[in-house]
Amino acid sequence: MLVSNIFLCQLSEAFAQSDPLPSWNESPTKKSIIDFVTRVTTEGSPDVVPVPERIAAFDNDGTLWCEKPVYFQVAFAFDRIKAMAPQHPEWKTTQPFKAILHKDMQALAASGENGLLQIMAVTHAGMTTDEFSDAVRDWIANARHPRFNRPYTDLIYKPMLELLTYLRANGFKTFVVSGGGVEFMRPWMERVYGIPPEQVVGSSGVVKFNAGLNGKPKLVKQPKIEFVDDGPGKPVGINRFIGRRPIFAFGNSDGDLQMLQWTAGGTGARFMGIVHHTDAEREYEYDRLSKIGKLDKALDAAAAAGWTVVDMKTDWKTVFSSP
Amino acid sequence: MLVSNIFLCQLSEAFAQSDPLPSWNESPTKKSIIDFVTRVTTEGSPDVVPVPERIAAFDNDGTLWCEKPVYFQVAFAFDRIKAMAPQHPEWKTTQPFKAILHKDMQALAASGENGLLQIMAVTHAGMTTDEFSDAVRDWIANARHPRFNRPYTDLIYKPMLELLTYLRANGFKTFVVSGGGVEFMRPWMERVYGIPPEQVVGSSGVVKFNAGLNGKPKLVKQPKIEFVDDGPGKPVGINRFIGRRPIFAFGNSDGDLQMLQWTAGGTGARFMGIVHHTDAEREYEYDRLSKIGKLDKALDAAAAAGWTVVDMKTDWKTVFSSP
Prior knowledge:
The structure is a homodimer.
Chain A: H1 2-18, H2 28-41, E1 55-58, H3 72-84, H4 97-101, H5 105-110, H6 112-124, H7 129-142, H8 158-169, E2 173-181, H9 182-193, E3 200-213, E4 216-227, H10 233-242, E5 248-251, H11 257-264, E6 271-278, E7 285-286, H12 297-305, E8 308-311, H13 312-315
């Protein structure tokens, strides 16, 4: 009896250890991931892919971490405005700053794209790249999410972290391909996702070299958008930064559709996945009608092509990386 | 006697095997490289650098391979014009194409920047990225250098290949940071340098996503320059693609000056190197007065700051990768 208990215990432990995705419920979703990775990594399999070509691309907002109630980079920009307000008394009476300081979302929306560009100009430009990285690191360490009241980097999806680790253990190189600003993501992604700066693809602003003084050159961020890594920009960003087509891609919104199409369009085995936010209780529930993270055309495309769609509510045992 | 001979033999073999840079003559140049790598990789050394931060950036033209009599990408463009000419009878009478077909360098020069843009438009645009890669691979396999009469990829510098290998064996991630077109370089650099596409930074043209037919999306190259990765563009390109500052950089011309300054401007141990073309017999001899690969300000900066300058004639035992 005792012996058989110990045996069962060990068996169950061995089983637990061999499960690379313990936060995923046993379901066709989990099976589709493991089947794909097994197919492309088993020597002698007709679908085996050489290690250098095992490129995996992940959207960030809504795919690796939460994106509600606003993209976290927008929260960062608003917090910067609040922190900088004492040095800018004129903001008390000037839009769109006044709207942010008074949490007047209607006035903010009314300021439109021009208002957004002004916000980006004061929060994301006029400083060196090093100064901006410091500001991001400081915010990541101190800011808290309004609903969950904890650091934003606690709102990373644990099942997706396990997936990143599982892919890397199988020879994949994991990339982030996000509409977010590349310089907003790089300062913390290596620590949080294990993804180094050179594997982060994102939107960017113009940066200018300045020879500086005493052999201390600077790169200064300009208030001008250079590249938007979203929608049709994602395959362009992948081509520009990575230079080869992923065989594995994961997104969560229509902004990821073209990346998924580009991945699907290559030859050989491919995996296309979508995180469907179906869990209002543990996270959020949204898709076709949402302004942030709208999932409509990509959901239809997934159904038509048989891509994997994660049902957050039923497929994920745990949602967030920190309890 | 016999025993001691065997012993000496083994000793010499062990020594030969332990020399990571056998094509470099024993000189202060070689010593400066090995000393630096030893300093930043020896555990417990005050200068040790964590593996993820061991970023090395190399210019390509004139640093890793030959750049005379013209940049090899220009030779590629001219060869493309010649190959496409039968489909373009109008080129017989239109500049700058006529000039290329008749090897009329004076007329070509007279066509100026506008002529160059026209050449780039017909040879580097109006096709998919995949078609362009195929054209580059085909050219690399078949074209021959006018003076040395062998494939362009035989004109890689053997000492620099050894250096790339040596750095990687010591935990460095090696990047190319070149003024050349990123899509011209990526198709062959992995095979020739061991540098994968995602570690190649270069100039680029605008690329557009096209959803295509039957689930086969395309990326189509447009006749518009997007980014010039040269001079002050190099630190910008490094920031954009790599996202961290190199601790090791190698160039050969004034177009590399800002990359070397940016590398030098960081904290901790750094290595800045310049290939000085001093060998008219085995390769070419040029510096301050050369139009291609002009080395003037960067040579002065190197002297002032104590950067390593390779004297090709005396520092390199062998120049090219293939005899």
